[in-house]
Amino acid sequence: MDVLDFARWQFGIITVYHFLFVPITIGLSAIIAGYETAWVRTRNEQWLRLTKFFGKLFLINFALGVVTGIVQEFQFGMNWSDYSRFVGDVFGAPLAIEGLLAFFLESTFLGLWIFGWDRLSPKLHVACIWTVHLGTLFSSYFILTANSWMQHPVGYRYNPTTGRAEMTDFAAVLFNKVQLVTFPHTILAAYMTGAAFVVGVSFWSMLRKHNADDQNLYRHGLRTGAVVMLIAGIGVAVSGDISGKIMTEVQPMKMAAAEALYNTQQPASFSILTVGTPDGKHEKFSIKVPGLLSFLATGSTHGKVEGINQLRARYQATYGSDPGAKYYSPGDYTPYIPVTYWSFRFMIGLGVLGTGLAALILFVTRREKLPTGRAWRWIAIGLPLMPLLANSFGWLFSEMGRQPWAVFGVMTTAQAVSPGVSTFEARTSLVVLTLVYAVLAVVEVGLLVKYIKGGAEKDPVVPDHTDNDPDRPLAFAY
Q1: Are the CB atoms for 206 and 222 separated by under 8 Å?
Q2: Residues 323-365: pLDDT tens digits?
Q3: Residue 405 CA: distances (Å) to CA of 216, 328, 433
Q4: CA distance linking residue 340 with residue 337, whole number of Å
Q5: Radius of gyration for the chain, computed over Cα atoms and rounded to the nearest angstrom
Q6: Is the dihedral of CA 287, 289, 294, 296 positive or negative?
Q7: Residue 469 CB contacts under 8 Å (≥ 6 apart), including other chains
Q8: 3-state class of 402 per DSSP?
């Protein structure tokens, strides 16, 4: 293994690990804001209990997300300096706005929300958590702007003197067609993930031996989470369908790799399961849905989908050979097919399964019914993992399907790696960061299990706004 190998592994591990926290943070902040809004409007103590219970879990997740996100930024300078130098002029504006506006919006108003329960009016206090959620949306938008530019570079010119991409149209970068469909797809998936977390925790807590009040409390959490999960799941499917068509337009090789489609077909079938030769180039057995791939790619069940071989020939004619792409023969321009094929299916399968279970949970808990049985406990534990893993597989597909490009059609991954980093340095940072992240995972899971087992407060302290002493210290509510 050389520097490129270690850099790719490190980037993959850190990115996937960090993105385990991001969708939960986005989705959970919206649900908590909804719970507190319900409490402010109704003064029903159950909504206050749910707000503070999931607020604790949200803060644990938020803290770990911030820590892992900081490392994510630093690795661009560590292992990908040539990439950072090339895209710096384009990425500078959106990432600066993300840091200076979005992140500080989140952190400032989160602090007010944590410490301001007794100092802010109820309406002002609930406005703080909504502002936190708004900050997560801003942050997501500007980060996805940078990623979408990697998928479909627009609004720039190449300066041969400096060897850099220079922004010429900020609006084109900000409203990239890939960005306009990626953002709602990602946010809806985050709502689904946060809601699945609420459903899993509430369902598991409800199935334990509790009094009637507690069971009713967790049933409220369960059903509100399931409703959000179901609606968001449908939204993910719709936005994903649009995303697939945009992807086919700007990166046809990625769609061909998702199906392991080596030759152009019209219409093209979608294989649910395929068994092929070890090199993946010849099919032995498959279960297919006729016309489905054509619909996913073009919107018509009779549409034409270009194959890998035809696209490879086109890319070779357009871009020439790529002797720097280590994982591919010169001029191949083909991603690693097994990863794209299976990550695409796991993304879709886990998302559909999670949405179906949300609908089933709403059905079995209707009319005050409480399901029993060991199987439901396993569903409660496994349900939050489904959209969480679907998110991870989605990012694997999105990033691996773009290979060998770091910036599609402009810069290969091999050209983006830092030239001055030694194999020893890259290997050491990979090992150290992986071990640190393993420790953080133990801390995260341990804290979550501890507070989930503790359950919601029996008699939460209702904020007292009668004391108007300006010198009264702020109180930590958790």
Answers
A1: yes
A2: 444 444 445 788 888 889 889 989 999 999 999 999 988 888 8
A3: 52, 11, 25
A4: 5
A5: 24
A6: negative
A7: none
A8: coil
